[in-house]
């Protein structure tokens, strides 16, 4: 399952002092602002965005991601890049009335959409909403039993810092889980996937959301994200133990798991 992957030869690392924003190199200090503009633009149509990117399968991936998480009643959970609350809502029944979930996102507009969505569903108890930067979490050490981040790590400027922070705020024995678009494993499928990502997706974004640029960035950000084996190594370097990953849908996305010991 854990196959070795390498970066395509035509992709070059970002120059010193810069980082990737899709396929563009931008100053490190600007990426957070640019990513924020993207998600402020798509916040109101976040579910549509994920449906277009995954052909609707993201809902199945998220349910599997939550159903296989190490979590029990009474646990305290941090859901980073919580977006409109999909993961937090699925986790709520698992932690029960005595548990709690902190829904964190760097983008205030996304948090507002998530809070309003929960309120509309009548699910208000047991949630906290905190605007946070995953690279500098405002929580004490060993605060959470489970830390999750779904389809958000690739948008973080300093992924290593975010992984170290996730490890820091976990209790001993706690689990971290990352769900993220990844590198497809079947060579025959890669051209089909590329066509959907770079031709179909921006066109659908323009048609349904009036925004093709944001959807173009999101497709590019997937290709610049570390592939499965590299991300596993990054989690190990951040201090996590028993790191593993499981490919879903042929590697379109993958679930990464690590523990604090």
TrEMBL record:
<comment type="pathway">
    <text>Quinol/quinone metabolism; menaquinone biosynthesis; menaquinol from 1,4-dihydroxy-2-naphthoate: step 2/2.</text>
</comment>
<dbReference type="Pfam" id="PF01209">
    <property type="entry name" value="Ubie_methyltran"/>
</dbReference>
<dbReference type="InterPro" id="IPR029063">
    <property type="entry name" value="SAM-dependent_MTases_sf"/>
</dbReference>
<feature type="binding site">
    <location>
        <position position="105"/>
    </location>
    <ligand>
        <name>S-adenosyl-L-methionine</name>
    </ligand>
</feature>
<keyword id="KW-0474">Menaquinone biosynthesis</keyword>
<feature type="binding site">
    <location>
        <begin position="133"/>
        <end position="134"/>
    </location>
    <ligand>
        <name>S-adenosyl-L-methionine</name>
    </ligand>
</feature>
<keyword id="KW-0831">Ubiquinone biosynthesis</keyword>
<keyword id="KW-0489">Methyltransferase</keyword>
<dbReference type="GO" id="GO:0009060">
    <property type="term" value="P:aerobic respiration"/>
</dbReference>
<comment type="similarity">
    <text>Belongs to the class I-like SAM-binding methyltransferase superfamily. MenG/UbiE family.</text>
</comment>
<dbReference type="GO" id="GO:0032259">
    <property type="term" value="P:methylation"/>
</dbReference>
<comment type="function">
    <text>Methyltransferase required for the conversion of demethylmenaquinol (DMKH2) to menaquinol (MKH2) and the conversion of 2-polyprenyl-6-methoxy-1,4-benzoquinol (DDMQH2) to 2-polyprenyl-3-methyl-6-methoxy-1,4-benzoquinol (DMQH2).</text>
</comment>
<dbReference type="GO" id="GO:0043770">
    <property type="term" value="F:demethylmenaquinone methyltransferase activity"/>
</dbReference>
<protein>
    <recommendedName>
        <fullName>Ubiquinone/menaquinone biosynthesis C-methyltransferase UbiE</fullName>
        <ecNumber>2.1.1.163</ecNumber>
        <ecNumber>2.1.1.201</ecNumber>
    </recommendedName>
</protein>
<dbReference type="InterPro" id="IPR004033">
    <property type="entry name" value="UbiE/COQ5_MeTrFase"/>
</dbReference>
<dbReference type="GO" id="GO:0009234">
    <property type="term" value="P:menaquinone biosynthetic process"/>
</dbReference>
<keyword id="KW-0808">Transferase</keyword>
<comment type="pathway">
    <text>Cofactor biosynthesis; ubiquinone biosynthesis.</text>
</comment>
<keyword id="KW-0949">S-adenosyl-L-methionine</keyword>
<feature type="binding site">
    <location>
        <position position="84"/>
    </location>
    <ligand>
        <name>S-adenosyl-L-methionine</name>
    </ligand>
</feature>
<feature type="region of interest" description="Disordered">
    <location>
        <begin position="1"/>
        <end position="22"/>
    </location>
</feature>
<dbReference type="InterPro" id="IPR023576">
    <property type="entry name" value="UbiE/COQ5_MeTrFase_CS"/>
</dbReference>
<dbReference type="GO" id="GO:0008425">
    <property type="term" value="F:2-methoxy-6-polyprenyl-1,4-benzoquinol methyltransferase activity"/>
</dbReference>
